[in-house]
Amino acid sequence: MQQHLHKKLRAVPSPMCPCEDAEQDAAHILQDCRNLQPLRREIWTRPVPLHEKLHGPVEALHKTTSFITRAGLHV
Question: Please, which domain of life does this record's source organism belong to (predicted)?
Fold first, then answer.
């Protein structure tokens, strides 16, 4: 519903990420957003697939939660 309202009435904020490279969805935020790259590298010292960040073991989920919190994101 919100996306529909956004397109028709512009009643909700834009779904675009502040970096303006893509929509602000989980894949973009956790994997690609250039604004969050330094924090991403700090938390994940090796490349980690999106599936592991979202559905992995408890340790992986703790890192994802930390990333979201430290990035100041609200879900």
Answer: Eukaryota
The string over 56-72, giving b where at least 16 C-beta atoms fall within 10 Å of a residue's C-beta and e elsewhere, is beeebeebbeebeeeee
43: nearest Cα among 59, 57, 27? 59
Inter-CA distances, 25 with 45, 59, 70, Å: 22, 22, 17
- pLDDT digit string, tens, across residues 10-67: 455 778 899 999 999 999 999 999 999 999 999 999 999 999 999 999 999 999 999 9
CA-CA-CA-CA dihedral for 50, 38, 42, 27, to nearest 10: -10
DSSP SS3 for 4: helix
Of 9, 13, 10, 11, nearest to 23 (Cα)? 13
